[in-house]
Amino acid sequence: MKLLILLGPPGAGKGTQAQLLMTKHGLIQLSTGDMLRAAVKAGSDVGREADAIMKSGGLVSDEIVTKLISDRLDDEAHAPGFIFDGYPRTQAQAEALDALLSARGLKLDHVIELEVDEDALVDRISGRFTCATCNEGYHDRYKLPKVAGTCDVCGSHEFKRRPDDNAETVRTRLAEYRAKTAPILPHYEAQGIVARVDGMADIDVVTESIDRILGEPATV
Ligand code: AP5
């Protein structure tokens, strides 16, 4: 089983790359951001607690996100591997993930840090939108649908933007990343599993760099 963490600030391309790697390597994407947004949409207790925190750009509690990950690891016990996208984000989450994996006899293979200039992050996030039906990601300048107003994947004509993708919230999310997430890198550097990738390159070039780190895709 292959296990990797995609680490990087908001807008670094974690979700974009996770989607591509899922298709290519047959891995399952575990995005705590997506899980929390689904909980908000469903109006669950977790969603009600997370909603205001996410809109402010702060971090949801370690307990909530770790429970979401733990449940998904159990649900997908037979998966060929996982891409952790947006988790862990704090030292407590990094330690909790170690415990979750060790209890299942699993071990991380790679932590891939996507490095992107901060100016580019704001630009990327403010231009981002997704298909309201299948969630395919687009960008006002870098990745428009091939036929204007029509999703390339499912043909839907409805698109949406995230409520936390505004300049003020992005600044808070970046500050949270610097203060709480970047400091977990030494935890993984000590294990010799960190690789850095230039996230400023074109999307397919970033994917090629990650492919080289992961090795040959499994046959799926
Ligand atoms: P989350 O959903 O995880 O958001 P994030 O980390 O802020 O990351 P983003 O999804 O904004 O960016 P990304 O790196 O995936 O970039 P993307 O591929 O979309 O978390 C949201 C919130 O949930 C948090 O603020 C927090 O409140 C809460 N939360 C989630 N997990 C939590 C946790 N573990 N603990 C506590 N709270 C948690 O790319 C961005 C744009 O750039 C796209 O338009 C894309 O097309 C474009 N793009 C991507 N790559 C490139 C490239 N190489 N060149 C040009 N454009 C590119």
What does the model show?
The chain is built from nine helices and eight strands. It has about 220 residues and is an alpha/beta fold. The protein has a domain at about 1-115 and about 180-215: Rossmann fold (3-Layer(aba) Sandwich), CATH 3.40.50.300. Strands 2-3-1-4-8 form a five-stranded parallel β-sheet. It has a three-stranded antiparallel β-sheet with strand order 6-5-7. The protein is globular, with a radius of gyration of 17 Å. BIS(adenosine)-5'-pentaphosphate binds next to helix 1, helix 2, helix 3, helix 6 and strand 6. Pfam families: ADK, ADK_lid. Monomer. This is Adenylate kinase. Catalyzes the reversible transfer of the terminal phosphate group between ATP and AMP. Plays an important role in cellular energy homeostasis and in adenine nucleotide metabolism.
What's the CATH topology name of the domain at 2-117 and 180-214?
A: Rossmann fold
Provide the low-confidence segments as ranges.
none
Looking at CATH, the homologous superfamily of the domain at 2-117 and 180-214 is: P-loop containing nucleotide triphosphate hydrolases
The portion of residues assigned to helices is 40-55%
CATH class of the domain at 2-117 and 180-214, named Alpha Beta
Largest sheet: 5 strands, parallel
Bound molecules: BIS(adenosine)-5'-pentaphosphate
| Strand segment tally | 8
Subunit arrangement of the protein: single chain
CATH architecture of the domain at 2-117 and 180-214: 3-Layer(aba) Sandwich
Q: Ends: how far apart?
A: 13 Å
Shape: globular
Mean pLDDT: 94
Helix count, DSSP H or I runs of 4 or more residues: 9
Pathway: Purine metabolism; AMP biosynthesis via salvage pathway; AMP from ADP: step 1/1
Keywords: ATP-binding, Cytoplasm, Kinase, Metal-binding, Nucleotide biosynthesis, Nucleotide-binding, Transferase, Zinc
Protein name: Adenylate kinase
Enzyme class: transferase
